[in-house]
Each structure stands twice: as C-alpha cells, then as structure tokens.
Amino acid sequence: MAIEYRVGSGWDSHVFVPERRLWLGGIEITHPLGLSGHSDGDVLLHAICDALLGALGEGDIGSHFGSANPQWQNAASERFVRHAAQLTRRAGWDVVNLDANLILEMPRIQPLREALRESVGSLLEIPSDRISIKGKTPEGLGNGQSAIAQVVVLLRREAACS
Ligand code: MG
Questions:
Q1: Confidence band for 159, pLDDT divided at 50, 70 and 90
Q2: pLDDT score recorded for residue 162
Q3: Which of 29, 84, 95, 151 could, after both became Cys, cross-link 10 (CB 3.0–4.6 A)?
Q4: Cα 2 to averaged position of ligand 1 atoms, centre (Å)
Q5: How far does residue 161's CA lie from ligand 1's centre (Å)?
Q6: Pairing of strands 27-29, 22-24
C-alpha cells in the first residue's frame, strides 16, 4: 500500500462586538464581547473547516454553507466542521494532525487550550493529542478589535497501488 498525504490551510477573521456570545472551537467562552458573523462567528471552527475542505479540494466554507442562506443564520459552526470531517472520512482520509494559531488580544488562550483541544478533537473524532492550539497576541495589529484564526491540517490515506 502506498501512503498519500494532503495538506490544507484555513484562515478566518471576525470582529468583536457587544451583545454576542463568544464561541471559540465549539465552546462558549465567558467574555464581554462576542464575534460578529452570519453564523455563531466561531472563527477557529471556520478556519478548521476551510483547512479540511482545502486539503480535500472541496472549495471553502462559503461554497458549502453560503452566508446568503438564512438557514445558517446564527448556526452553530460545529455543524460546518462535522460536515467537513465527514467528507474527509468518507474519502478515506485520516487527520494526522491539526495546528492552529488564534490571534487575538483577549481572552487569553492558554487557560482554554486543553478544553479547546478536547472540543476540536471530539468534533473531528480524533484524539486531542493530534490537535495543537496556540494563542498569539496581535502586536501592532488592530487594537484587539478582531480575532484571527489560522489553521494547517495534514491528511493521510492508504492509496491502492496502480
Ligand atoms: Mg468566518
């Protein structure tokens, strides 16, 4: 059996606004501000979804869950990631690892890291030790007005020999 690999990258940003709940990695976080967006604004899950779809060559989150569709208004982004993970598994791919940068002023990511890894691992149905989540402060960028997520994922599958 030959082994084949695919890499995918995802990037997203959302603006902090008052009177919104803050969702990151599928977890509701206690914070005075939330992230704007058509769905729940979960910037990390959106970047994860795009990384998986990118690795599969299946377009991006907007081509699967368009923001013009009222069905996805305030939708839980877990649904988007579960869909991308299902496409991944159906095509025979395993997630080798996923590495994410969350670039935001507040909240601090370090105390949330293990909970985020567990949550993302359970959404992707893989062990959390294959998930890395790093918090970075956006020195000199944007005065804490937004959150950015950047994700790289590696997929692996056994390819039938031709
Ligand atoms: Mg988004």
A1: confident
A2: 57
A3: 151
A4: 36
A5: 39
A6: antiparallel
How many angstroms is it from 148 CA to the middle of ligand 1?
9
Q: Are 6 and 93 in contact (CB under 8 A)?
A: yes
Give residue 49 CA to ligand 1 midpoint distance, Å: 10
| Ligand 1 geometric centre to CA of 14 (Å) | 6
The residues that bridge with 156 in the sheet, in sequence order, are 5, 94
Which percentage of the chain shows pLDDT scores above 90?
80
Whose structure tokens read 């013009």? Answer: 68
pLDDT tens for each residue of 61-120:
888 877 777 777 777 899 999 999 999 999 999 999 999 999 999 999 999 999 999 999
Q: How far, rounded to the nearest angstrom, does the alpha carbon of residue 50 sit from its chain's CA centroid?
A: 7
Longest dimension (CA), the chain: 57
List the structure tokens of 19: 């009177």
The amino acid present at 149, given as its one-letter code, is A
If you measure from the C-alpha of residue 63 to the centroid of ligand 1, how many angstroms do you get, rounded to a whole number? Answer: 12
Q: Output the pLDDT for position 66.
A: 77
CA 159 to ligand 1 centroid distance, Å? 33
Cα(20) to centroid of ligand 1, in Å? 15
Q: Where are the alpha helices (DSSP H) in the chain?
A: 43-56, 61-64, 78-90, 113-124
